[in-house]
Amino acid sequence: MGFASQAPTDLTIMAASTIPLASPDDWDAAFNSAFPAFFESIMVPNQTWVGGDDVMVPPELSAMIPEQEDWIGSSSIFDIDFSLAIDKAMDPLPSAVPMRTDEVDTNGKEQQRTMKPNESARQRHSIFLEDSPWLWMPGSGSNAFSEHNRIQVDERSMNLAASPHTPHAPSVAIPDDLSSQSRDRIFQLVIKTANSKISVPTFPSNECLELLLKVGITKRLETDAWIHPYTFSSDKTRTDLLVALIAAGCVCFGDPSISRTGLVLLEIARVALASASEEDNSSVRDLQYLQASMIWLDVCGFCGYKRKMEIAESNLQPVITALRRFGKLDKVAYEEISPSASDSTEVTEALWRRWAQQESFKRLVYHLFEHDMLMTIARHRQCLISYAELTVPLPASRDLWLAPSAESWRALYLENMSRASDTRASSVSLRSLLSTNDMVQFLPRNIDRTLAATTFLYGIAAQIWEYNQQATVLKAEQANGGDPSNTLWLQARQHSLSQKLRDFEPSLANLPATTRLIHAFLMMILNIDIDTVMRFAGKCGELEAHRAYHDLQVWVKGKSARVAVWHAAQAMRAAKAVPPFQLRGADSFVTYHAVMVLWTYGMLCRDSARRTGTNTPTSSHRRSSPPGLLRTHSVKQVVLDDIKDESTDVFVHTGDGRPCMRFPDGRICELRNPSSVLAVGSAILQANCPTETRDGMPQLIKSLCTLMDDLGNLR
Fold it and tell me: Basic and acidic residues bias located where (predicted)?
C-alpha cells in the first residue's frame, strides 16, 4: 500500500501558457504547472547517500481509520474476528463533487474525463486539495444500529486478574451492589433504545454487570476522579449512566471483544441520552445525565472509528452549553459547605452528600475543559471553552474527595482546616492561576494539587492555541506591509508563554508521563505551526505542500526549528514512559504529531543536503564542502530523546551535530533518515501494547502505526 513515486499521470495539469489566469483556480493550475511535481522533486529526492531511502507524501490519517464499526455482524460479539483489513479501511471516500482533470491518453492527445469517487486511495489523495483530513461521507442508511444486531456476553472470559490493563484500582472498594431491579432497568433500556434492530438471546448476570460497572467507576479515579465512588448507588442512578459506566468498564477491561462490546453499549447510551433530553429537557441540568454524556464523549472522542469520533466531537458543544447555561462555569453557582464537630450524624451525612454533589460538578467542569483542549490540540480545531470564563473554584483535595464515609470526611475536613495557613481554596480557579505567575507553585493544601497543576497546563495550552492563530494572521499581514510592531508583540508573547512552561517544569516530577508528554508537545508547537507541517506532509495536496515547503525552508534554518525538534524528541521520550496500555487516547495523537515534526525536519535536512552537500540547513552558512561531499564522518551524533546534556545544548544553539533518536530497544536512528523516524514512532506506540499483536491493539493505535509504517515503506 502506498503512493506511486511519480505524480499521477491522470492528474497532469495543462501547461501554464495555455491557461488564461482569470480566476484563483486558474492561477493555482498555472502555479502548479510552473514547477516540477513537488512530491517528485522535493519530497522524493533522488538520494543515494543515505541508503536509497526514498520517501513520499504520507497518506491521510483519516484514510487509515475505519468509517464505522463494520466488524460487527450477526454472530456473537465475543465469537467473531474483529481484525480489520487495512485495505478496506483505505477504500476511497465518495466525492461530493466530481473533479475534472486533464490527462494524456495513449496517443498523446489531451482529453477531459471525470474522476470517479471509487478510484484508488492514491488518486483520492491527489484530489484532496481543499478537503479536511477528517471529512468523510457516511454510507446511505448508516445509523447507530445498522452494523450490529446481537448482544451476547461470554462471562467465562471475564477474568479481571488476567487483564494486563490493570483496570480495577484495588485501593477503592465501592460498597454498592447491583440489584436485580437495576439489571432489569438496564436490559429494558437496551431493548427500548435498539427497538427491534438487535436481538439479545442472553443478558449478562448481576455479577458480570457489577464488575464492569465498578471497573468503569474506578478507571475514572486514575486521572482527575470526577465520579464520586462512595455516594454512588446503582438503585438511585439513571439507567443511561449505568449503561455508560458498564460500557466504559468494557473498554477498559483489556479483552478486545469485551472492549468492542463496550462501544456497542456506548451507542445505546448515546441514543438513550438524546431521547431523554427530547422527552424531558430538564434532564440536561441533571448531574448524572451530564456525567453519562461525558463518559461516551471521553471514550468515543478518541476511539479510532471515524463515525464515532465525528459524532463525539460534534456533541461536545451541547454539554458545554448546558453547563454554561446552568451557571456551573462561574464561581457564583457554588457555596461553601463546611461541617462542624457539633453536627449530628444525620446532618453530617446530608452535608457530605451535598458537598459531593457540588464537588462532582466542579470536577466535571474541569474535566470537560481538559477534554476540550485535548480535542483542540489533537484535531487542530477551535476550543469551545474559554479559560477566562472558568472562575469555578478548583476541587478539594483528593484525600477529602475519596473519604469513604461522612464521618471520615468531616474528620479530614476539620483536620485540613486546622492545619491550613489560609483559606484561599474557595477563591482559587483556573483564571486566578493563569493571572498569577507563581500561584501554581504555592497551592493551598486543601485543593487537589495534581488536578490544579494539570488544569493550569491546559490553560497554557489554550493560550498557545490563541497565540498560534494570531501568529498565522499577523505574519500574513506583515508580509503584505502590515504594522511592524506585530512582530515584536509575537516575539514577546512567545517568550512569555515559553517562560510559563519552563516555570512549570518542577511540577512535572509529580505528574503522570502523559502530562509530561503534553508539556513537551506545547513547548514544541510554540516553535512550529502544526498546520504547516501537515500541509507539507500532503494534507491538502501538492500545491499546498509546495507553499508550506517554502515557509518551512525559512523555519528549518533557524534556532526555533531545533528547539521544536528537541521538544518533539522529548515528547517521544515521555511517550515511552507511559504505562502499558495507557497510551490510547489524545496522547497517541500528540505522539503522532511529534513524530511528524521530526519527520518534517528530517525531510528538510535531507533536501538541504541534496542541494548543498551539507548535513544540516545551518551548516551551509558556516562551512563549505565540495559538491557531493558530505561532512558526516567528523560530526557527533546527538541523541535528542535522552536527558539534555552539553551536546544537545550545542545542537540547539548552533546546529552542530547529527540529531538522532532511539528506538524502544535502544537502537539509534538519525533524523536525516525520515523512514526510520516514522519507524521509531510506530515502535513506541506498539511498545505500549506489549502483549498484543497489531490486530489486537486499540483501533486508534493500530491506525496510527499502520499509517506511519506505510509512509515509511513508500518508494
Answer: 100-113
